Amino acid sequence: MSQIMFNIPKEENMGSGHVACPGCGATLSMRYALKALGLDTMIVIPACCWSIIDGPTPSSVNKVPVFHTAFETAASTASGIKAGLKAQGKDDVTVLAWAGDGGTFDIGFQALSGAAERNEDIIYISYDNEAYMNTGIQRSSATPYGAWTTTTPAKHPKDRPKKNLVEALAAHHIPYIATASVAYPDDFIAKVKKAKSIKGMKFIHVLSPCPPGWKSAPENSIKLSRLAVESKIFPLFEIENGWRYRITHEPKDVPVKEYLRLQGRFAHLTDKDINQIQKEVDLNWKRLKMKVKLSEEDEKLLAEIANE
Amino acid sequence: MDRVLNKNLQKYFNPETTEEIKVIEGTHSASYAVKLARVKVISAYPITPQTSIVEKLSELCANGEIPAEYIKVESEHSAMAAVIGAESTGSRSFTATSSQGLALMHEVLHWAANARLPIVLANVNRALAPPWSIWADQTDSLAQRDTGWIQFYCESNQEVLDMIIQAYRIGEEVMLPVMVNMDAFFLSHTSEPVALPKQELVDKFLPPYKPKFKMDVADPHAFGGLAGPDSYMEFRYRIQEAMEAARELIPVVAEEYNHYIGRYHGALLEEYRTEGADYLLITAGTITGTSRLVVDEYREKGINLGLVKLRAFRPFPTEDIRRIAKNVKKIGVIDRNISFGQSGIFFSEIKAALYNSDVHPLLNGYVAGLGGRDVVPQNIRDIVEHLMKSEKGQDLVWIGVKI
Question: Which of A196, B99, B181, B233 has a beta carbon 3.0–4.6 Å from B126's, enabling a disulfide?
Answer without folding.
Answer: B99
